[in-house]
Specification:
The protein has 6 helices and 14 strands. With 248 residues, the chain is α+β, with helices and mostly antiparallel strands. The chain has one domain. The strands form 2 sheets. Strands 1, 2, 3, 4, 5, 6, 7, 8, 9, 10, 13 and 14 form a 12-stranded antiparallel beta sheet that branches. It has a two-stranded antiparallel ribbon with strand order 11-12. A hairpin with a 2-residue loop joins β11 (164-171) and β12.
């Protein structure tokens, strides 16, 4: 594990989320220095170890609908309270929109619920997330919390809100809580944030590509049904290619 202070929020996003530039803090020499520093001050003194213990008492009778992005603790990077922690063990609670970090120095699975307002960005399961609520911008009221950031061009980004709704089921075996994926999407084009949860939403953002977007929906109908989130990623990449072609 590595920790280091970052000077600005913009630098944090560049290093941890966008990956536009080389991240020199990944160098092996610096990693060894940070690990030695953490060992010297003690894991219990790290800011990431301070918080509410995460407890999961839910029972589900549908095991495919756990409320985490992944049920296991996965290695990742998190920027917490202005400090970057590499090689962290993380879980993302999609129901409560909380990031959970496994306590350093503990052999069990004890997790700490990180304070959302202090959690700027994180990387987990090959996905980059940013807390849009932390941006010093006038954002639409429908934007809140963590979003997966998918950057196509500097002026075109897709933000995916991973979320799971829950329902309570009571039967002769007891009380169970089941979860269903309910992801939503935001497109940022030329610094304007717009909802993009339907074909009509998308064509309102890019009216010049009405026919092309309609054709994309038609030929990728099955992909949209099976994996709506990947469909939206592909649609944004396709739209980016149209914009690039017209800019030439």
């Amino acid at each position: 594990m590595k920790s280091k202070y970052l000077n600005t929020f913009s630098c944090t996003l560049l290093l941890v989320v966008c990956n536009f530039y080389p991240c020199y803090c990944q160098e092996e020499t610096l990693q060894n220095i940070y690990r030695a520093f953490d060992a010297t001050i003690g894991y219990q003194n790290l800011g990431i170890n301070n918080g509410t213990i995460h407890i999961n008492n839910d029972r589900s009778n549908n095991k495919t609908n756990r409320y985490y992005l992944n049920d296991l603790y996965l290695s990742g990077t998190v920027v917490y309270d202005g400090q970057a922690y590499d090689d962290s063990k993380l879980k993302y609670d999609l129901s409560k929109d909380l990031l959970i970090a496994k306590v350093y120095g503990q052999s069990n699975n004890t997790g700490i619920e990180l304070i959302p307002e202090k959690t700027t960005a994180f990387n987990i399961d090959t996905k980059n997330f940013v807390n849009l609520s932390c941006l010093k911008l006038q954002l639409p009221t429908f934007i809140s919390g963590f979003y997966e950031a998918v950057t196509v061009t500097p002026e075109l980004q897709l933000y995916i809100k991973h979320h799971k709704d829950h329902t309570v089921v009571i039967n002769d075996r007891g009380k169970f809580t089941n979860y269903q994926t309910q992801n939503s999407f935001v497109v940022c084009y030329k610094n304007e944030y717009r909802q993009a949860n339907s074909q009509s939403d998308f064509t309102r953002i890019f009216p010049q590509y009405l026919k092309e977007i309609d054709h994309f929906y038609q030929i990728n109908r099955e992909d949209k049904r099976q994996d709506p989130t990947q469909f939206m990623r592909n649609l944004l990449i396709y739209t980016g290619s149209l914009l690039a072609k017209d800019s030439k």
